[in-house]
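Q: What would this chain look like folded?
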Amino acid sequence: MATTISEQISAQLAEDIITGNIKPGEKLEEQAIAERFKVSRTPVRDAFKQLISTGLIESKPHRGVTVINLEIEQLSELFEALGEIEALCARLSAQRMSTVERKNLENLHRKSREVLKNDDIHGYSDLNEQIHFAIHEGSHNAALAGVARDLWRRLSPFRRSIFFRRANRMSVSSDEHNDLIEAILEADMKKAQSTMGSHVANSALNAISFLSESHTE
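A: My prediction, written as structure tokens:
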């Protein structure tokens, strides 16, 4: 999936913040970051807007842009909310997805299995997003899909490729997708809902464990 310069900057800064290379309370200077990435200030400003929307940084008058202190409890609550919403999306998708939508979901999963064989973490991360978004849309409930997208955006820094490098998470995630998509294709609403709930819970555990370890090092 193609990304803009601002998205690339946002992704790298998010990784720096999550891994602790940029510390809580540290001020982010537009000019310094523009020089680091060899770009003008415009894409840096756009990257800041993206990071503010995820809650990793904040901008205040007379203080500029600073990194917030990541609260594990708040992150856990966001993942819990996402798990409930996505589980409901999966349940409705099992009932409401059209034949074309089911085929698209199946194809996305097949592609993700192919990039898994090549150990393509970035490719898998992109396809992982496409699979989840397809399930949001497959619920055929615009309000529900909108909430799911908003929560996904808030948690997007914790779905970066760095998290798929932990504890064989990419392979485990793919296996979980296999069970989830199988349930949706079989129109098994109950299984689709419970499988998605477990899948998001495992993603949350992976992200929170990573943060807990990196913040104690």
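Residues 9 and 15 are 10 Å apart (CA to CA).
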